[in-house]
Amino acid sequence: MTATVEPFGNTPDGTPVERWTLANGDVTMKVLSYGGVIQTLEAPDAFGRTENVVLGFPDLEGYVSADDPYFGSLIGRFGNRIAEGHFTLDGETYQLPLNDGPNTLHGGPGGFSERVWTITDVSDDDVAALRLELVSEAGDQGFPGTLTTAVTYTLDAEARLTVHYEATTDAPTVVNLTQHTYWNLAGEGSGDVYDHLLQLNASGFTPVDETLIPTGEIAPVEGTPFDFREPTAIGERIRVADQQVLYGQGYDHNWALDREDDGAREGSDSEDALEQAAVLHDPESGRTLRILTTEPGIQFYSGNFLDGTLVGTGGGVYRQGDGLALETQHFPDSPNQPDFPSTELRPGETYDSTTVFELGS
Questions:
Q1: Could you confirm whether 133 is annotated as catalytic?
Q2: Which entry of 166, 295, 327, 344 is annotated as an active-site residue?
Q3: Neighbour tally for 95: CB within 10 Å
Q4: What is the spatial distance between Cα 66 and Cα 82, in angstroms, rounded to a whole number?
Q5: Residue 141: per-residue pLDDT
Q6: What is the pLDDT of residues 313-323, one digit of tens each?
Q7: Which of 84, 240, 245, 265 is the most exposed place for a label (fewest CB within 10 A)?
Q8: What percent of the chain stands above pLDDT 70?
Q9: Can 327 be counted among the known catalytic residues?
Q10: Where are the beta strands (DSSP E) in 92-244?
């Protein structure tokens, strides 16, 4: 188990950025202090060939660009969309900056994906691990309360990456943290992921309107292109003339996970169980990614807006479908949807959430 650090340039305002390398067993991961980005993750396939299986940029310039589609980033304060960028909490309405048409996406411009986190090596004899910390002052991105956040990346010898989120606040607020890595289990730059087989442990999903805001309904997946209860090729139904697929230009939706434990926050998620949310398999390489989480939802985004203008770590351009994101989360627009699991966090409570990405072949 090793953790090493090196300089990785400076942000436009001159803040130094670090790149950490975690290695454990056959897996090596590079993490940036900018945005908590997972830049690369190298893992062997069924034939012993080691390749990077996540999308990213070769240098800091790509990540600080306005064109960055959140490659590998930590997302906050609120992952996914909030309708019209406003919500009401305890009778007071808060307005957030808009950055996705009429809505706020991933916390808005200047979110956690664009901050330099403080990183500490917390490895021990069994795991390579980093603790990333960030303080978001009251009013940051329009949200109430000073939010103190810590995220721990832990890489063990069994090729499991555990992401543990913790946050506290000094005033009532809303929080929904997630990790926005784009996966291609055949290897970064190898082409599209439409042959990957995806299984989602969800019999319902949250339909959206034309701006990708949930309608408030949890609709059954049965008989729709959103039924991934059995392993299904991502490309099998992605071009079906379904209104929801048309809205997302592919898949860009939240699935309500079938859990024994509902995953709903009651001040803290620490007592919620880790349950399987998704299994992704690439038949060509034999790699499999299994995702377990304490969260009640998962956003499956099929890389619909990659358009051939971004150059990746391997030197090639990324086109539509060249990677996919599986973001464990509470549901989008939850502050405006009283029937969705609550994302409220209050003083004295701890936001405590865990997701495990388990690679195998």
A1: no
A2: 327
A3: 11
A4: 20
A5: 95
A6: 999 999 999 99
A7: 240
A8: 99
A9: yes
A10: 92-95, 104-105, 118-121, 127-136, 147-156, 160-169, 173-174, 178-180, 182-183, 197-200, 204-206, 219-220, 232-233
